[in-house]
Request: fold
Amino acid sequence: MIAELGHFALILAFAVSIAGSVAPLYGAHRGWSDWMTLATPAATALFALVCLSFAALTWSFVTSDFSVRLVVANSHSLKPMIYKIAGVWGNHEGSLLLWVLMLALFGAMVAAFGRNIPTGLKARALGVQSLIACGFIAFMLFTSNPFERLFPAPFDGADLNPLLQDPGLAFHPPFLYLGYVGLSMAFSFAAAALIEGRVDAAWARWVRPWALAAWAALTVGIGLGSWWAYYELGWGGFWFWDPVENASFMPWLAAIALLHSAIVVEKRSSLKNWTILMAILAFSLSLLGTFIVRSGVLDSVHAFAVDPERGVFILLLLVVAIGGSLALYAWRAPSLKSEGVFAPVSRESGLILNNLLMMSSCGVVFAGTMAPLVREALTGAKISVGAPFFDLAFTPFMVLLAIALPLGAMTPWKRGDAGKVLSKLWWAAAAALGAGALVWGVQTGTSPAAPIAMALAAWVALGVAAEIAERAKVGSAPLAENWRRLARAPRADWGKWVAHFGLGVTIWGVAAITAWTVEDIRVARPGESFALGAYEVTFDGVTRAQGPNYVYERGEFHVYRDGVQVAHVYPEKRIYTETRTPTPTTEAGIDNGFTRDLYLVLGDPQVGTGGVPTGAWAVRAYVKPFANWIWGGAILMALGGCLSLTDRRYRVGAPTRAAQAHAAMAPAE
Amino acid sequence: MIRAVLLAATLALSAGPAPAVQPDEVLADPALESRAREISKELRCLVCRNEAIDDSNAELARILRLLVRERVVAGDSDGEVIDYVVDRYGEYVLLRPRFTLGNALIWLSGPLILALGGFAAWRYVRARAPQAAAQPAPLTEAERRDLDALLRDGS
Reply:
């Protein structure tokens, strides 16, 4: 009954989404204001209906209603409650419903908070948003219905994929989708602006918060995924350049470009066309990511061709959305005029360079991800593109980015003086080079990668410090004045500083873990001790026990440094007994530290001749220096985005003219 | 009781798949081993999804890891080992595609975007420069004459 309610709500939502797109778009075209104002209640109703539908599906999972096919395939009555709930989106159909829920949520938020948006722009933006929702709801209803029943209902379910039964991965998809779908709002605003043929500072002020929120959510989502891979997959890798990861990484890069170019539209009324294009591109890449992950094209191009129903539908959505918006862009964009004038050395140019580097690096990821698919589809030849390619082809752009960032961030708007910028940053450059040299001298290896990366990380972080010092007038004003100036700095500036600093922190973490990980793979007997870098590890033994829906073997290790115990870790090997094919998963034992993680993994029991257990176990032990800095930096980046989101100019929501006057009075960022 | 039997049975099963490099695969010579690890990171586990044999749990990955170590111990250079594996399993095994005509676009996409985009951006920035936009065209000869005449009349 509940499932049918959910299904019914979804069908109603489909109808509402059609009405909510056709009426406002046509009304705006004809200038009928009563049709246009329909957009607001339609967006709210759509959200309410999808909410109801999602709640119904959640209810089916929570109560383990095994007459619903999806629950049978992805849940089990013994599963802990949190994973019953996470199971709702831990599968194809449910994740699509979550996608649409977020989509409707963002539309409803614009409807609720966008009182100051001009009626036409609002009607068109909500109309486009509703159109996207319509496409995805149709996809669900016709090819991936989450409410399908199963008769007769089995006694119990097949359980969720064990890898997904983990806090990191349970909350990875919601954040990721929040990001993808947040970009849909920027896309809808871009399409609306193209239809209207008008882009101004007020438009940019409406788009940027969505792009910021989406980007921050994507950052958290990607960070969670990476963190999960680090502790779950059993050898402490944090990024694998897997197509699924790349699918979320491309929109992230494009969103960065969008964020930065939208600032130029808002403050300087330049780069309008380009910003619109970035908004279209960022969401197109989100759709592409959804296609890559959801169509099954990754497992094999042939699998896609054999069961093409879903894939073809998403491909169609993709073609309509991307092709349609790009056609609209080609038709309308030339009529958008940019007024701003700026010198070659200026903040504007710096932000253009940012966009160039983002697009180039995004191009590398795109080419590397799509090439094997395209190659196989066209010629049947199979090629692989993996981590070694991306490490080599992607990194140079990040190096350029890190070099350019502090310079561009310090350059004033409109016209800058290269000499002046350098004079404010020379000490940061010197200190960064010093840090690189120090690392070069201290490290035992001969690889130049670590010293260079360390110098870059220090340069980015110190560049932020130099900028803050400059803003506070450190040295040229009394201390009280310094504080006062910092306290008065807009939140958007604090957001920028925190996010840029976070990038430095992440670069540092990535460089350290890549260059200085210590690894030890061995067979150990209970009671045995072995050295691991500067540490001494003692293996105490293995116990076996039973979890809620799994059995596990748990190793016990003590770690000493200079004779003092520093850590006590318990790596596990789990087997989820309720899944169809029980396979072991590893739960690494990790002692988190500020400057290093101790990372232990329990391998297999060793078997002697004739299959007799010898009592010894395979053990892998790692020291991962500065591992937490990778995700710490990601958190800082997301925090920076959120800080910027709370900036006064978004909170006040003053009418256009007053806001512009305020912007004109405020000192240039 | 039944639980305990089940437990024992499933745990016995667990000895099957092995995560990544196993202790018995590790070479005694650390220099050779580290070379083997670096080579392993370049080679794809053919039955996995985009995983290097160095990270993979699959049986085939283990066979390939052992093969790589065998060649390294036999005195092959890194390039020779990779060629040897490619000869047997095809280009598909390479996680870093070779720079060939067919693969050129994969390698050049980033630099091309940067170069073309950089050129376009440079032209755009130059066109927006205040000098170009703000400075009016120089006076023509006729205009100058008129201006001089006006100034003379005024004085």
Remarks:
- The CA atoms of residues 142 and 148 of chain B lie 10 Å apart.
